[in-house]
Amino acid sequence: MNTLYFIGIAGTAMGNLAIALSQRGFAVSGSDSGIYPPMSTMLDEHGIAYYQEYSEENLKRANPDLVIIGNAMSRGNVEVEYVLNNRISYTSMSAIIHDEIIGKNSAIVITGTHGKTTTTSMTAMIFEYAGKEPGFVIGAKPGNFPYGCRPVPHALHHSGNGICIIEGDEYDTAFWDKRSKFFHYPPSIAIINAIEYDHSDIFSSINEILTAFRLFLRLIPSSGLLLLNADDSHARAMQTSAYSRVETFSTDGNGDWNAHIIDQIDGHTIFECVYKGESLGNYSIAMIGAHNVRNALAAFASAYHSGINLDAIRGGLSAFIPPKRRLEHIGIWNDCIVIDDFAHHPTAIKETIAALKQAYPEKAMHAVFEPRSNTTTRNIFQVELGRCFLGVHSIILGPINRPERFADHERLNIDRFIADYASHDIPVFAIIEDTPNWGIHARDYLSKNASAGDIILLMSNGNIGTLRSLLT
């Protein structure tokens, strides 16, 4: 197997995996419906050929040994149909990560509704600082590495002496494989950071999600380790389903591992780490918020139990640069501080706002939110979304993404959302028209309502109507 072809190559995870496998010596090409920077630039830099639209001719020219089909692809895609009709070997992104990135090596798999990307990035940086040369799969552009996917060095990969740090997503694998991606990643150490209802297009209830996590625990060997967030009730309850040793971590004093925040200043947090009653000293990360300290504590515990000494852990955490769009300071606009964050679940929104209120207690905050995920475009979190923005000065609500998918009674009720915040004297500027550049209307609102020194907080798992580029 020498020639690989990626259907859906422009996705963040798919593109980074394509680059990693190209670096391993595979001939890689692919296609997508639209490829633009930064992914187009990254693929160009590595000499990876790609097509801007799907066509049978692309596959005929590539003549691949194996096709990797992204989980956004479905039956009816012209390239998918060509692969099936011509019996070309194909696999999923998760399966090839198992075969070519993890292989025979040990894996630390980081899961949960929140904190996966940050915790995976922190863990990878600690191991890198300790000289372990880890392989990793990170679901964003990491701050410390040029790409979000890297295989274990060739010599270590085939000996099984390497370590892989893997972000384990509960979202499904592919159109033919509806299991969560993390079922493909057998862990020696597993982290569950939090479990909440999300991905309503995949799971019908929280019980289905809990079942998936319980089944995931069966992959951990009896000699392995499960690290659970003791501050999250669903994660903590996983302890009774474990087949391995279990330890817990907490910022509320509830765990085997506890972090006590000492100070937050200039975007950094200093905290004390205590393990089973013994202080292991003070540590610093270039992030704010109790949730990010909890992420650091999980990374700390996984490294400690992998034999990494405290000095290397301290150095790795200090050298850690957050991934893109995780409380990222992206610029100054009209003398306002612009912060970009990936938060799109009510709990993540609440934690992000709390972190910024603690860091900037005197500043007014204007939150711009794009209801884009399958869960937040529906009224599943109507009540939670009507509370999680409390503490901000104003809210700009972007248009519901692809509202035609749902009946009126299933969609997020904008009028109720506005009324919920009106009762707290928080104005909501709702943008109804779903155009690619709706951010222009948000910018105009901010021009009139944001004052010098205010915080503008962008929260979306999409491009937020191009507002990001309009404010930087």
Offer a concise description of the structure:
This protein is of the alpha/beta class.
Please give a handful of descriptors for the protein shown:
10-stranded mixed beta sheet; Rossmann fold; 472 residues; alpha/beta; 23 strands; UDP-N-acetylmuramoyl-L-alanine:D-glutamate ligase; 3 domains; Protein-Tyrosine Phosphatase, Chain A; 16 helices
Protein described:
This protein has 16 helices and 23 strands. The chain has 472 residues and is of the alpha/beta class. It folds into 3 domains: 3-88, NAD(P)-binding Rossmann-like Domain (Rossmann fold, 3-Layer(aba) Sandwich); 95-319, Mur-like, catalytic domain (UDP-N-acetylmuramoyl-L-alanine:D-glutamate ligase), CATH 3.40.1190.10; 328-470, Mur ligase, C-terminal domain (Protein-Tyrosine Phosphatase, Chain A, Alpha-Beta Complex). β12 (189-192), α8 (206-217) and β13 (225-229) form a beta-alpha-beta unit. α1 (12-23) packs parallel to α5 (93-102), α6 (116-129) crosses α10 and α6 (116-129) packs across α11. The radius of gyration is 22 Å and the shape is globular. The model has no long low-confidence stretch (mean pLDDT 92).
Topology, element by element:
Layout (H helix, E strand, L loop, with lengths): L2 E5 L4 H12 L3 E5 L7 H7 L3 E3 L4 H7 L3 E4 L8 H8 L4 E3 H10 L3 E6 L4 H14 L5 E3 L11 E2 L3 H6 L3 E5 L4 E3 L2 E4 L8 E4 L13 H12 L7 E5 L3 H5 L7 E6 L6 E9 L2 E8 L2 E8 L4 H15 L5 H10 L8 E6 L2 E6 L4 H14 L5 E5 L12 H4 L8 E4 L16 H9 L5 E3 L8 H11 L5 E5 L7 H4 L2
Parallel strand pairs: 1-2, 1-4, 2-3, 4-5, 6-9, 6-12, 7-9, 12-13, 13-14, 14-15, 19-23, 20-21, 20-23, 21-22
Antiparallel strand pairs: 7-8, 10-11, 15-16, 16-17, 18-19
Helix pairs in contact: 1-5, 6-10, 6-11
